[in-house]
Amino acid sequence: MDIQYDAIVIGAGMAGLTAARKIAETGKKVAVLSRGLGTTNMSTGVIDLLGYFKNELVINPEEHIKELVNTSPYHPYAKIGNGDAKKTLEILKISIQDFLEITNMTYAGKTSQNVVLSNYFGTFRPSCIVPISMLHGNLLEFEDSKLMTVGVPCYSEFNAKFFSKSLQYVVNSFFEQTTIKEIVSKDIMIPSLGKDKEITSIEIAEALDNEELFSGFLKQLQKFVNETDAYTVVFPAILGYKNWFQNHQHLEKELGVQVFECLSLPPSVPGQRLQQILENAANDVGVEIHRGIQVLSAHVENNECKTLETVADIYRRTFTADVFVLATGSFIAEGLYFDGTKFYEPIFDLPVRSDSKTDYFAGKRLESGKHNIGFTGIITDETLRPFDLDGKVLADNLFGAGSILAGYDYISEKSGLGIALTTGYIAGLNAVENL
């Protein structure tokens, strides 16, 4: 049985859901096909545009993206602007503003200014567009700060004492004109979760969505803040699952101090919040999200993709559409594979480009810096249409987006969700023009 849509997007992460939403906003019938939740669900929940350039920390992403576009023609930022840095920055700003609007401004940031956030180990990571609940965690703005770090007993992923010592050392040692004057750690029990078993960040966040439990949590915090006279209170990423924004605002109002969450480990509550924001925005414009569906192959004829063959459980179905977006991710999401001798893309059998023909991997297991395999992906033209084996566009109605694209290493650059967002946005707009 054929199932007909105007557009089909393969992949339910940041790139796929953004593309699907932009197409559906024009009134088209759009489906997203996904085997699971997407890697955005496991992310830190922050939008990195460009965190490092030439191994140096980036403070102003716009400045270095200009240089990147001018020097790296295969980079996705260069592709979306067709080599024009000014056009790339315009697209970047428009897509970011579009994203901020669907979050109801629960995210903040600007393309000309990175923030530097701490993770659970007390070390740091640059990012750009971040949840409001993390905004006061910008290490570049710490000045004689007096912090209180809050942990939860039986939540072993975050050790408040270790985090405090590590963060104080990092800030005072690596950042000029920023200091932590004093940092103390406190543990707060959440009675409903007990004290005899391991608990997860998701369990804590869901508990703090409960008004009564959150009220008890706040009373304990008020006592500790008064005792320590802290200027800022630091949490792991646990301040609620659905009500995180309201909880954060309420804490700052009632405690009278700044409050921030730090970057978490997977499974990531902020990543799941972000995934829900993206899905809600897509649902609001009529996108149908189908999970548990594996796309096996595509039928391409006369330079046009016709159908997708899929399987869900034991049932095979054919999906038909006028336009398609491939946003299946890189190796982690299994949008790309390496069989020991060659790379391949499993649905359309697209050629995969790597910057190195022989040395794909780093010489050392934990070697820092860029790895050649990170630049691996599919090659597209400036409209994000993938090339076939002959160097020609495979199908006029197929577009690629997100980490499946070649020409950049999102891990070393810290540009992952930024590129997913911008390429998903452009792929969606280009798909609409093809309908």
General description of the model:
With 435 residues, this protein is of the alpha/beta class. It folds into two domains: 2-64 and 273-434, FAD/NAD(P)-binding domain; 120-264, Rossmann fold. It is 31% helix and 22% strand. The protein has eleven helices and 21 strands. Strands 1, 2, 13, 14, 15, 16 and 21 form a seven-stranded mixed beta sheet that branches. The chain has a four-stranded parallel beta sheet with strand order 10-9-11-12, with helices on both faces. A hairpin with a 4-residue loop joins strand 17 (337-338) and strand 18 (343-344). Helix 4 crosses helix 11 and helix 7 packs parallel to helix 8 (244-255). The longest helix is centred in the last third of the chain and has 19 residues, at 416-434.
Q: Distance between termini?
A: 23 Å
- Secondary-structure arrangement, i.e. CATH architecture of the largest domain: 3-Layer(bba) Sandwich
Largest sheet: 7 strands, mixed
CATH superfamily of the largest domain: FAD/NAD(P)-binding domain
Structural class: alpha/beta
Low-confidence stretches: none
Number of strands: 21
Mean pLDDT over all positions: 91
**CATH topology value of the largest domain:** FAD/NAD(P)-binding domain
* Number of individual domains: 2
How many helical elements? 11
- Helix proportion range: 25-40%
> In angstroms, what is the radius of gyration?
23 Å
